[in-house]
Amino acid sequence: MELEEVVFQIILNAGNAKSDCFEALKSAKDGDFKSAENYINKAEEEIIKAHNIQTSMLQKEANGDHQNVTLLLMHAEDHMMSAILAKDLITEMIDLYKLIYSGKGVK
């Protein structure tokens, strides 16, 4: 697979993950925590796919198969990191919504 194809796969998986995270947040805001959990799980699967591609590229690099670092590759890495951050932050926000809906409030 060409570098561009690999990079676009990372972008696709990361974009899917971020979309799933924001769907999870919307579900939590509506009080549908089962759906929120399902979306977060889907996001995690997409992040794992992107991470596996990245890991494969790192292993190739470590074995002497050097890739050119392109702006497109850096863009893909940015997408992956923002998807990971979105998942982490939105998971915390879902926990806050759970507290709000439980009537205990936020401490």
Automatic annotation (TrEMBL):
Entry binding sites for Mg(2+): 78
Modified positions (Phosphohistidine) in chain numbering: 75
GO biological process: phosphoenolpyruvate-dependent sugar phosphotransferase system
Transmembrane segments: none
Cofactor(s) recorded in Swiss-Prot or TrEMBL: Mg(2+)
Note on how the cofactor is bound: Binds 1 Mg(2+) ion per trimer.
Pfam families membership: PTS_IIA
Keyword terms of this UniProt record: Magnesium, Metal-binding, Phosphotransferase system, Sugar transport, Transferase, Transport
Gene Ontology MF terms: metal ion binding; transferase activity
Identification of the protein by name: Phosphotransferase system PTS lactose/cellobiose-specific IIA subunit
Coiled-coil annotated spans: none
CDD domains named in the record: PTS_IIA_lac
Family annotation (PROSITE patterns): PTS_EIIA_TYPE_3 (PS51095)
Active site (record annotation): 75 (tele-phosphohistidine intermediate)
InterPro entries according to UniProt: PTS_IIA_lac/cel, PTS_IIA_lac/cel_sf
